Amino acid sequence: MIALIYLVCKQQEVGGIRKVTMQDVAEKAGVSKSTVSQYLNERFEYMGQATKEKIKAAIEELGYQPNVLARSLKQKKTLTIGIIVANILHHFSTQITRAIEDYCHSHQYHVIICNADDQPEKEKQYIDMLRAKQVDGIILLPTGKNIALYRELEKQGYPLLFIDRAVEEINVHTIVLNNRDAAMHAVEYFYGKGHERIAMMTTPVHVSVRAERVRGYQEAVRLHQLPQMNEYLSTAPLENTEQALLQMMALSHPPTALLVGNDLVLIEILKTVRKHDIRIPDQLSLITFDETQFAELYDPPLTTIAQPAYAMGKKAAELLLKQINQQLDDEDQRSFVFQAEFLERESVKKLI
Amino acid sequence: MIALIYLVCKQQEVGGIRKVTMQDVAEKAGVSKSTVSQYLNERFEYMGQATKEKIKAAIEELGYQPNVLARSLKQKKTLTIGIIVANILHHFSTQITRAIEDYCHSHQYHVIICNADDQPEKEKQYIDMLRAKQVDGIILLPTGKNIALYRELEKQGYPLLFIDRAVEEINVHTIVLNNRDAAMHAVEYFYGKGHERIAMMTTPVHVSVRAERVRGYQEAVRLHQLPQMNEYLSTAPLENTEQALLQMMALSHPPTALLVGNDLVLIEILKTVRKHDIRIPDQLSLITFDETQFAELYDPPLTTIAQPAYAMGKKAAELLLKQINQQLDDEDQRSFVFQAEFLERESVKKLI
DNA sequence: GTGAAAGCGCTAACAA
DNA sequence: TTGTTAGCGCTTTCAC
Hints:
The structure is a homodimer.
Chain A: H1 2-11, H2 22-29, H3 33-40, H4 49-62, H5 68-75, E1 80-85, H6 91-105, E2 110-115, H7 120-132, E3 137-140, H8 147-156, E4 160-163, E5 173-177, H9 179-192, E6 198-201, H10 208-223, E7 233-234, H11 241-249, E8 257-260, H12 263-275, E9 285-289, E10 303-306, H13 309-324, E11 335-338, E12 341-343
Parallel strand pairs in A: 1-2, 1-3, 3-4, 4-5, 5-11, 6-7, 6-8, 8-9, 9-10
Antiparallel strand pairs in A: 10-12
Helix pairs in contact in A: 2-3, 2-4, 6-13, 9-10, 11-12
Chain A binds a DNA duplex through residues 19, 21-23, 31-35, 37-38, 40-41, 45-48, 51, 66-76.
């Protein structure tokens, strides 16, 4: 009687989709579940040719798809990593993500992409969610605010890697750009072209990247004894960019050169420049962090400090997977510093 | 003896990370697993205040994180959907993805993003992988090639939704742009400005979107009895864009206006234009599909056909979640057609 | 109000 | 060479 009811249930395809299970395959092939499992995991050592074929046929006939949830539960690994970007709107983030995806895909890992929108709260949510989903590791472009959480992960030995931004006192693998040097280089380049009143604009400096760029800028300015005015440094939020720039240009000695902190600020600046007829580079020379596709298409083409985003992402994925699989060599230092590439174009005017 | 060994194992934190399980919480709180489970699922009806607090304390003390894999296995749902984009490099894809992410996030769903790179093979791999991961549904920007697979999913009643591209004879929810109309509109706009030799460039037309745009273009050209030359239509692969454009411009009667099929081709065209000093709009007027951030910053600003990508993505997520939760109303048609927004800027010259 | 027990679909000893 | 069995961590019915 019970068997009969069971049969009936099996027939009626509850909810329209009845998932085929390993048990079904085993029955159809006339073998046991574990044999099917062996087959799926390619442990063919002792498996008879006939068995193999029966199983293969059964799988195809039933259109069986393994349930990786169950497998992951058992094996305690998901072959999945998470990546949390601080702000997906930065082109840099997209490129990093893509590099990581590519690398993981070629190593049979999957990637769950999350966007923290620069909100520490959201970052925390995503870290928790990824852990709940049992991902094998996390790549983080940290907001830098969830120190306690980072520390907890570090302590637990959870595979974690920071990219783009370092976090003081958290001792995990970190991949960054030498932002300070890059900013200094830009200032020196301006200086070499005869500029003295050099300004910098970026978004608020609460993350290490921006802070370092600002530091590099300031250091270089000091080094060359250029005019250091508070008015030459803007860290206004994105939506106040226009106002900030106009204010700068209205100074009695407005800057002749401007270092732009990232691609999002750049867009705002270019909008402003157009709207108010500020002439580039005659009136204002420009160098910007982040290479965007239109840097070379803009009129004039923009000199940029390009980050090797793809390479950085790839390295990140590589290191994280090594860490997950406990294959870290001694040569794998804790921290990798990439160098920016300076792409000289016509947005800087020669003054001397 | 056995108990002793078990204890020892529990102490030694195998591999550095020992996950805290519900059992641990239950023990510490002096209740049973099922009570903890009730607590976590907020089934408080009959739960004593004291019990609640003991459990809460135990959870915090142990830093317990539920394992959603186990839960999903049991509940047969993962609260996760997958999205497979045909080509992540299109700005349009990024925007759609973001919209879907936003909507899902606010509905406690998670999203796994995959990039098929325009390769049907990869698309198939990802569909299989997502199903293996037991995602509750899939949003697909289909390559259009895996017909058999699409049909299988349709037959199984698997929650599936197409966006951007329709697939003939596959009867699932579909969200598209009215590409034909948009292309016709562009041609008519050119015509209204006095252009007669109107060309179009896009990447190869094996997907419905591009095909429709081309059809719209051709129809409008025919309608207004404009010169129809094969040479005015290029569907060269991306890497041959430069060559194709130059060839067009070298015709004895080169086009005076060009409709560009998508943002990736646009970039190539603008590079070529710069390299070979083709004057926009004097020598060649331009309208392009896809609004990019630099369209209005380019010199001259580019007239674009903007897709309401965010709205489309949001609608997609909305429909798919409805479908998953079996809440489709009668008003939810199978197919949603969005209208493009025509953004008039200076890249079209008036000839009359 | 709470707990015992069965089971989700799979893997991995170990037995046969 | 293949099958038996005991779980992975959680949910859920039903008994207490």
